[in-house]
Amino acid sequence: MVQIDRRTLLAGSVLGAAAAALPATPSLAAAPLAGKQGPGFYRFKLGDYEITAITDGVWVVPVKEQMVRNASLEQIQQALSDAYLPKAKLMITFTVLLVNTGSKLILIDTGTGGKIAPAAGAFEGNLAAAGVDPKAIDTVLISHLHFDHINGLKTKDNKLAFPNAEIMVPVPEWKFWMDDAMMNKVPAHAKRYFQNVRRVFGNIGDNTKHFEPGVEVAPGIKSIAAFGHTPGHTVFQISSGKDSLMALCDTSGPPALYVRNPDWHSMFDTDPKAAAVTRKKLFDQAASERMLVYGFHYPFPGTGYIAKDGKGYDFVPSQWSPLL
User: Fold this and answer.
1) Domains (ranges, CATH) in the chain?
2) Quick check: 262 and 278 in contact, CB under 8 A?
3) Over the stretch 80-117, which tens digit does the pLDDT of each residue have?
């Protein structure tokens, strides 16, 4: 049995009182919240080519019935819920693709130029973060002439963003949007698309090269007609060695809506029926060939595969990898 005498008891009392008199040990401060994401770019190899997906940010839009012309609001919300996405708001991503062939730097579309939504317009900063000088871009391939694909051709002070690049636009796309008679026919709300094309290309139109879809537009990059979303919408098949990637561009919008429901008519499609036919044709090709695809509005970095079963299609994101 432990014996505690009077001296031990008094010593313990003194030590206890001294400890109580000491200041409390301060707790470690919590790390401050970052409040923002890091630079948004992702690299991967395609054969001998190096491809960089660069985010331009997002556009958060309220989910409304008219966003899909031939689906009810309840159907749209159910499709979003099935994909574990919010029902009230849709996040539309913008991802630009940069192809490095080893001898050429080729950009596919240019992003919003910061003129679409508060959370968009990050492409310029992310391109710099990826270590790419805009002056080094050799070619800019334009899939179609909607705001979010061409506004990045100009800086905020209206200068050429890629001063040394050859800019290439599909012939049917150029003819449609540059047709004054067509511009005068469309409803007032649609005129802004035509006016924006003139704003962007007003002082560079003469230096823009036009190509017919179906030709090779750069080393290993073939253009493919994909009309419907716009009259001259064009996609690009990138091939290096045994590897290929189909840059679907705006063949479909967010996969939760338009890959799973390829017959749905987006409010942004000029010819919705033609767009649906094109969509299924390209999805069939990508699925049968197990080809890597990229979508401008697909979840960043926008790459994956189109899976097909008896019920239709689905988008399977490619696995992120730290290896090149």
Assistant:
1) 38-317 (3.60.15.10)
2) no
3) 999 999 999 999 999 999 999 999 999 999 999 998 99
